Amino acid sequence: MMQYVIKLLHPAALLQQLSLLQYMLARQGPAHEFTLIPLSLQRSCDSNVLAVDPTMELRFLFEPRKDVSCCLQLTNMTDGFLAFNIKIDKTKYTTQPSKGMIPPCSKRYVSVTLLAQDDALPSKQCNDMFLVQSADVGKDLTTNEINEDFFKEAMKGKVVDVVKLPIVYVALDQISCS
Description:
Blueprint: H1 11-28, E1 50-53, E2 58-62, E3 68-76, E4 81-87, E5 93-96, E6 99-102, E7 107-114, E8 129-137, H2 148-156, E9 160-171
Parallel strand pairs: 2-9
Antiparallel strand pairs: 1-3, 3-7, 4-6, 4-8, 5-7, 8-9
């Protein structure tokens, strides 16, 4: 008799699992049987292609006339190499690195900087989006080969995963100490 283990997941991990299930159901089409895979047969990186943390939005503590940075974690959830490319409004933000490779089942940190803005935005509203494109690649690909054309070609074959995060500005006066 096989035993199954139920793990309590962090809400972000639970959302990733639900997204993956929704994706798998869409690919399967209607009326397919599903089988449970015993935990002992699962690999730790079976859940998704690219995990991005934070998962819901990218937040900047907004201060007029100051550069403000935050850190983003990209996790390759596959057993293959991933190329990534970050798309963002380059007149307002910088990223370091903006493209690169992530080895199998490993993490990469990205620094995102909101460049100094002259004035506070009305009610701190922001409609900007942060996009991370990723594609499965061979380990011999170099960072110089990862560019817009590379991802345009990959998109023709529909092999590009895109993660979108809304950008939110948090005002200093919104932070309270309890």
